[in-house]
Structure formats: C-alpha cells, structure tokens
Amino acid sequence: MKFVDDVFKLYREQLVEHPDGPLEVVLQLFSDHEREDLLRFIEGMSDDELFQMVSLYVVELLKQKLMQEGLLPPQDATPVDPNLH
C-alpha cells in the first residue's frame, strides 16, 4: 500500500526507536481525523487491503481480550489504545 510506504519513509526512525513506535505513529497520524476522513481512506483500499485491515484489527482485539482474561502473556499482545473501542 502506497500510504504505508510513505509513512515508513517519513517516520522510519520513530518506527524503530521504540517497541510501540508503529502504534504511536499510527495513532498520531489518525487522531485528528474525522470519521468521514477515515471512511474515505478505507474506500480507497483494495478488497485485499480491507480484508487485511479488518482481520488484523479483530485478531488484535482478541489478543487483548485473551490478555485481559489472563490467557495470554502480556508480551504476546500488541498494546491497544483504550480509546479505540
């Protein structure tokens, strides 16, 4: 996806400096956007990109739930901003 390639080029150092670098960068990029902006972004995705996005989102939420229930060690789950739900 061109967007990911562009973000990688612009934020490469931030992405590798901290373990949560990618999460921080993505939250920073999208935090000030309105719902309509995000929907336009999604509408520009291919079917495969949309499938990947939704699949990864659900997997990460399941990991978070497993972690909350004590069924998954915390290091195996990606931290998710509590404001994302």
UniProtKB/TrEMBL annotation:
This is Cytosolic protein. InterPro entries: DUF6154.
